[in-house]
UniProtKB/TrEMBL annotation:
<feature type="transmembrane region" description="Helical">
    <location>
        <begin position="32"/>
        <end position="52"/>
    </location>
</feature>
<protein>
    <submittedName>
        <fullName>TraB protein</fullName>
    </submittedName>
</protein>
<feature type="compositionally biased region" description="Low complexity">
    <location>
        <begin position="545"/>
        <end position="557"/>
    </location>
</feature>
<feature type="binding site">
    <location>
        <begin position="272"/>
        <end position="279"/>
    </location>
    <ligand>
        <name>ATP</name>
    </ligand>
</feature>
<feature type="region of interest" description="Disordered">
    <location>
        <begin position="544"/>
        <end position="599"/>
    </location>
</feature>
<feature type="compositionally biased region" description="Acidic residues">
    <location>
        <begin position="558"/>
        <end position="577"/>
    </location>
</feature>
<dbReference type="GO" id="GO:0003677">
    <property type="term" value="F:DNA binding"/>
</dbReference>
<keyword id="KW-0812">Transmembrane</keyword>
<dbReference type="InterPro" id="IPR027417">
    <property type="entry name" value="P-loop_NTPase"/>
</dbReference>
<feature type="domain" description="FtsK">
    <location>
        <begin position="255"/>
        <end position="450"/>
    </location>
</feature>
<keyword id="KW-0472">Membrane</keyword>
<feature type="transmembrane region" description="Helical">
    <location>
        <begin position="90"/>
        <end position="109"/>
    </location>
</feature>
<dbReference type="GO" id="GO:0005524">
    <property type="term" value="F:ATP binding"/>
</dbReference>
<keyword id="KW-0547">Nucleotide-binding</keyword>
<feature type="transmembrane region" description="Helical">
    <location>
        <begin position="58"/>
        <end position="78"/>
    </location>
</feature>
<dbReference type="InterPro" id="IPR050206">
    <property type="entry name" value="FtsK/SpoIIIE/SftA"/>
</dbReference>
<dbReference type="InterPro" id="IPR002543">
    <property type="entry name" value="FtsK_dom"/>
</dbReference>
Length: 670
């Protein structure tokens, strides 16, 4: 209704009476009247001059010199206007002054002067009317040479600016560089000088290249920073909706919504220096995600133990807040990918879609061989967020996320890696190349090149101009987002002062508790196999509670049995832990007196771990320690149990393969 009223207000009122019709006609013709008035004034001037100076040779000389001078002034003054406008103005002034001079000396109706006035004056007036129509339609440049003067200052002479559009706090102009002399790259390199000439920040100028041309595009200038005042998080964008709908996390500098289409983004690199606002951006994303019906969120924050996310922890399916738990989460994500991919394949999905999260009642998505609907429970979308991932990468290796990023796309899994500086020393090149979307907050120096594509930087994106002085300012470059917006500054929402964020988090946690998806059996089973109690007791660990279990008649024995069950690999399930070590080859078992004590055996195992860390492929398995069982004086079950203990202490990290652990360089052998 409002839109319709606005349209009606902009329509000319031509049906409300003769007076209104006349008013509208005058309004439409008024811009075209001045040239005809000037033509009439020229005729009057010629007749008046003849009345005063008829036959005077001195008047003729003076008027002729005046005509030349007036034409020269017009040409000179037009140096900062368009070439067409300059020439048009000079011809008009020269013609009018020449006719006036002739009419003053000879009379306006002598010889051909009368006809020249009628025909020439009408043609010149009409030419200005035509120009007015073309300019209004954007078909001719209005200030090309004026822009040329500006472009000359910044070293881009002969550059033409046209179709200049002035909007509230925005100026948009199409540019055309001289063919064979300059390219779009030259204009990008001159952006700082252009900002200086216009006296605006460098971030106020964006250059949008024409993909079909190396010398054409648009320059967008936003002189006033509309993001200075933060915007409070307005609430969920699509409460109870699917994660397939975009996530609203902030505003662009023109006031439009900053939207992240998660399924198009696939994997995201979040980068920014300390104090740049990464945490605010993370909270905005999580607040949106936790109001959707078909997504499960895993969050690892070993660096700060989830300090910033505590109010949201009850709504997270898994919050890994220490290094062992985070390492177990990495291994779990690696493991659930093939399990989820197999489920999607068996149910006829080429990639995850919202229908995959529902009960499978469509025969097209049935895993049954007879073609009937299988009725299987669906699998929710999974987002794994690794906050301050640099610590995890240092301890697990810079390629720990490579496999996940390369394989998770079709499994309905999104990987988010958040860190201050995604340099090659911290994040492998392969992993960085597998994170197609980037949210880049303020950085130092040239660090933006680690996150943003080169073409976005060339278009004017400059997060180094903010550093940590503009908290929450961000560039979002992602598939599904208009490419013209990749270099457009935005600002994530502010979660408010102390206490306000907690109120928002409580609202999301409680109001959407019954809407949020629970972890599906496919994902949970795969994670349990590799992470064990790190996954099954994940909520208790995150909330600092003791794991719940049924009371036992003999608590000590029950605890020992449970520990034994958790710490034995599947390959050792049938091994009798009390059995003696069988003889190796022709050698007999070591005599009981030579068997190391418990502490001595553990120290020896630590030494073996250190040795394998220096010579192995980065992983160690229970079977790798087989040749050393005699030295340890223990069997495979003991070794398996001790390696599980080392993993719990963070000195080893579980992998997707049962009984195989990744060595943690900093902590191994401590």
């Amino acid at each position: 209704m409002v839109k319709q009223q606005n349209i009606q207000q902009n329509l000319p009122a031509v049906s409300s009476g003769a007076g209104t019709v006349k008013s509208w006609l005058w309004k439409q013709t008024q811009p075209f009247v001045p040239p005809w008035i000037v033509t009439g004034l020229v005729g009057v001037a010629g007749g008046g001059a003849n009345f005063a100076w008829d036959g005077s040779p001195w008047a003729g000389i003076g008027l002729t010199l005046g005509s030349v001078a007036l034409t020269a002034v017009t040409w000179t003054a037009g140096a900062r206007s368009g070439r067409q406008l300059r020439l048009h103005s000079a011809i008009t002034v020269a013609s009018a002054s020449a006719w006036t001079t002739a009419a003053a000396v000879s009379g306006p109706f002598s010889g051909p002067l009368g006809n020249l006035y009628l025909m020439g004056g009408g043609i010149l007036a009409l030419s200005w009317n035509i120009r007015k129509v073309l300019v209004a339609g954007g078909l001719v440049e209005t200030s090309g040479a004026s822009d040329k003067g500006l472009m000359e200052k910044v070293g881009l002479a002969r550059t033409l600016l046209k179709n200049v559009k002035v909007e509230p706090n925005k100026v948009v102009a199409s540019y055309e560089l001289p063919a064979g002399e300059l390219t779009n790259g030259d204009l990008g390199r001159a952006r700082d000088r252009l900002a200086s000439a216009l006296d605006v920040p460098t971030t106020a100028i964006r250059i949008e290249h024409d993909p079909d041309s190396a010398r054409r595009g648009r320059i967008v200038i936003v002189p006033e920073d509309m993001l200075k005042e933060p915007t409070i998080w307005p609430g969920p964008y699509a409460p109870g909706g699917s994660v397939a709908e975009p996530l609203r996390i902030g505003v662009y500098d023109d006031g439009s919504d900053l939207l992240l289409p998660l399924l198009d983004a696939i994997h995201i690199l979040v980068m920014g220096m300390t104090g740049s606002g990464k945490t605010e951006g993370a909270l905005d994303l999580l607040l949106e995600l936790l109001t959707r019906r078909d997504v499960v969120v895993w969050l690892a924050d070993a660096a700060k133990a989830g300090q910033d996310f505590q109010p949201l922890v009850p709504a997270l399916d898994w919050a890994a807040l220490d290094t062992p738990s985070a390492a177990a989460m990495v291994a779990s994500v690696q493991t659930v990918i093939p399990a989820r991919t197999a489920w999607l394949r068996d149910h006829g999905y080429r990639a995850w879609e919202p229908a995959a999260a529902e009960r499978q009642t469509d025969r097209k998505h049935s895993c049954r061989k007879d073609g009937k609907a299988c009725g299987c429970e669906g699998i929710a979308y999974l987002l794994a967020w690794f906050e301050e991932a640099a610590k995890l990468l240092r301890e697990l290796g810079d390629d720990v996320f490579t496999g996940i990023a390369q394989e998770a796309r079709s499994a309905g899994v999104t990987l988010v890696v958040s860190m201050q500086r995604a340099s090659g020393y911290q994040l492998s090149t392969d992993t960085r190349a597998s994170l197609p979307a980037a949210m880049c907050f303020g950085v130092k120096g040239d660090d933006a090149s680690f996150a943003l594509p080169e073409e976005v930087l060339d278009a004017g994106a400059d997060p180094a101009a903010w550093g940590n002085k503009r908290k929450g300012y961000v560039y979002l470059a992602s598939a599904g987002v208009d490419e013209d917006l990749h270099a457009t500054p935005a600002r994530t929402y502010w979660t408010g002062p102390s206490g306000e964020y907690e109120r928002m988090a409580e609202y999301v946690v409680t109001q959407f508790e019954t809407i949020r998806a629970a972890i599906d059996a496919v994902t949970a089973d795969a994670a349990t196999k590799v992470a064990g109690k790190f996954f099954t007791n994940r909520r208790a660990r995150a909330l600092g509670e003791a794991p719940t279990q049924a009371p036992a008649a003999n608590p000590t024995a029950e605890q020992d049995d449970d520990q034994e069950h958790e710490l034995v690999d599947a390959e050792d399930a049938d091994v009798d832990p009390t059995a003696e070590i069988p003889p190796a080859g022709t050698n007999t078992a070591l005599p009981p007196a030579s068997k190391p004590g418990p502490e001595e055996a553990r120290e020896l195992l630590d030494e073996l771990v250190r040795m394998l860390a220096g010579m192995g492929p980065g992983t160690v398995a229970v079977k790798d320690l087989g040749p050393y069982l005699e030295q340890l004086g223990r069997d495979r079950s003991w070794v398996s149990k001790e390696m599980k203990r080392l993993a719990e202490e963070g000195r080893l990290a579980p992998t997707a393969d049962a009984g195989v652990y990744r060595l943690v360089p900093v902590l191994a052998g401590v």
